């Protein structure tokens, strides 16, 4: 049961994920959650750091696609200034949204990675679809009200995962084992 919620990697922040390392791993598409992963849940404009990361991904010919449980209107408004493609109503933790993205962007599961800040939705959906997953720390310590229950439950799941996988810790990059 824990395997469904166990991330492939745990990285401190989305912007710490090096596009060159993704390229070396054969990744062609980065699927990412929106709120508290790509942008702060209460700030739809993003940051300069996000724009630099997006540029670095583009230099490596890696597409960035938002896969979110939010409505079409919410995501459209949030990513308008970023001009990012997206899959709305992804129904995470089900793998439907991720499978739609894989089909739409014509990539195999091995060529994609899902980045998210929640075990019970983002990581579960990635693992259910055979896509590698990167759990990141939330951008903000606060959440929208709809996420608070998941955060509470995740504490228990994370404790069990760390017991089973003591080597799994938040770190700065994908390739090195350092924290």
UniProtKB/TrEMBL annotation:
> Under which name does UniProt file this protein?
HAD superfamily (Subfamily IIIA) phosphatase
Q: Which organism is it from?
A: Secundilactobacillus odoratitofui DSM 19909 = JCM 15043
Q: Which GO terms describe its molecular function?
A: phosphatidylglycerophosphatase activity
Under CDD domains, the record lists: HAD_BsYqeG-like
Superkingdom, taxonomy of origin: Bacteria
Pfam families this protein is in? Hydrolase
Q: Which Gene3D superfamilies match?
A: HAD superfamily/HAD-like (3.40.50.1000)
């Amino acid at each position: 049961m824990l395997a469904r919620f166990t991330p492939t990697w745990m990285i401190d922040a989305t912007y710490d994920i090096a596009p060159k390392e993704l390229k070396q791993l054969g990744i062609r598409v980065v699927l990412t959650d929106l709120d508290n992963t790509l942008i702060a849940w209460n700030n739809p404009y993003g940051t300069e750091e996000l724009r630099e990361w997006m540029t670095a991904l583009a230099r490596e010919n890696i597409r960035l696609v938002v896969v979110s449980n939010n409505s079409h209107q919410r995501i459209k408004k949030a990513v308008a200034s970023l001009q990012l493609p997206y899959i709305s109503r992804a129904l995470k933790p089900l793998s439907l949204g991720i499978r739609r993205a894989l089909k739409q962007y014509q990539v195999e599961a091995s060529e994609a990675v899902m980045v998210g800040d929640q075990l019970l939705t983002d990581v579960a959906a990635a693992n259910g679809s055979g896509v590698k997953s990167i759990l990141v720390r939330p951008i903000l310590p606060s959440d929208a009200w709809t996420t608070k229950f998941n955060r509470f439950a995740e504490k228990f799941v994370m404790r069990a995962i760390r017991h089973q996988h003591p080597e799994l810790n938040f770190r700065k990059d994908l390739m090195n084992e350092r924290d």
